[in-house]
Amino acid sequence: MGKIIKAVIALQFILASAIFGAGTTAMDILTSDTGIRAIAMGGAYTAAGNDPEAIDYNPAGLARVKSAEAQAFYDRGMTGMIDLEMFNGIYSQPVETQFLEGYFAIQGIYLGVPGVMNPDAVDDSGNSAPAAAFNETFIKATYAFNLAKMDWISADFVKNLNLGVSIGMAMEQIGPYNGSTVEFDAGGQYFVPDTKIVLGASVMNAGLNVKVINDSSPLPLTFRLGAADSFVVDKNNDLLVSADVIQDVYDYTRFAFGAEDSIMKKFFLRAGYNTSLDTRNASYVSAGCGVILDFMQYSVSIDYTYRMELFDAFTDFLSDNYFGLGVRF
Fold first, then answer.
1. Residue 309 to residue 281: CA distance in whole angstroms
2. Number of other CB atoms surrounding residue 119 within 10 Å
3. b/e code 265-275 from CB counts within 10 Å (16+ = b)
4. How far is CA 264 from CA 41, 261, 269, 304, 318, in A?
5. DSSP structural state of residue 130
6. What is the spatial distance between Cα 206 and Cα 212, in angstroms, rounded to a whole number?
7. Which of 38, 250, 285, 288 has a CA that sits 20 to 30 A from residue 7's CA?
8. Angle made by CA atoms 307, 41, 52, in degrees to the nearest 5
């Protein structure tokens, strides 16, 4: 049994340290990048986010969604020595009642890797121990609103300020061991008057420590600041540019930059760059494209993003492919 425990602990160490680069925090699913459009823009989405994908960067961005919308994306790629896959689904819609007026979303994420074998591990009967599997599941609910909807604030600036809050539950299983926790997010987006500039700030992954096996680790508490601006290139092209500063309390500061060219509001080209102050952490370049197709009263978006890791703990050039589908009602 001792060897089985050691195998599970070794898997935990590989996943936390080698794959995700944050060995001191729990729930790697909270540091895994999500959103096809957001990843293509380098994760510079604190101020730029204006769709359901924004809830993992700044929940206030959900207040810019104007109709019911469902999104799903799939990621499959080699991350370090491990073959990783992720499923992510989001549903959002406006909410208007006598007591509540804003925008609501619910999200589910699954992150997993195949079982990892340890040939030296045996069970109590002397047989080879089963593979140590790893998976994490995350469920989150988000509510966002424009501050002007609150009657108790009458200042003019509130009409330019969106706020958002989230509560989520994260669950982790490593071999026969598991742990869970609740996390909270909060953020705001401010629209600078007489410009197209948007400023954003958020606090993500606030919550209690998680204990798995014998280790108790904190959540990856993260502070984000961002700015975005848009320009009219010509009658058929609109350009969005964005930049973020990202501070994981238990890691080094990261910088993200992104751009999106909207062609006739139907075709989209995106690019991004994400890097760290610590050269031992990975830097990324990303690019993607998307198209919106109209079917009767529905709009269907199809998106693809390719992201390449320029450096990681294994000194290799690794990559991920992301595929996404969205429906606007």
1. 10
2. 8
3. eeebbbbbbbb
4. 19, 10, 12, 19, 34
5. P
6. 18
7. 250
8. 110
Residue 37 makes CB contacts below 8 A (sequence gap 6+) with 45, 51, 53, 260, 268, 270, 288, 290, 303, 305, 324
| pLDDT tens readout for residues 234-255 | 989 999 999 999 999 988 899 9
Distance, CA of 244 to CA of 227 (rounded, Å)? 7
Instruction: Say which CATH class 2-328 falls into.
Output: mainly beta
- In the three-class reduction of DSSP (H, G, I as helix; E, B as strand; rest coil), residue 38 is classed as helix
30: three-class secondary structure by DSSP? helix
At 159, list the tokens: 């009409």
**Phi and psi dihedrals of 241, rounded to 5?**
-125, 150
pLDDT one-digit tens code per residue, 288-311:
999 999 988 899 999 999 999 886
Domain boundaries, the chain: 2-328
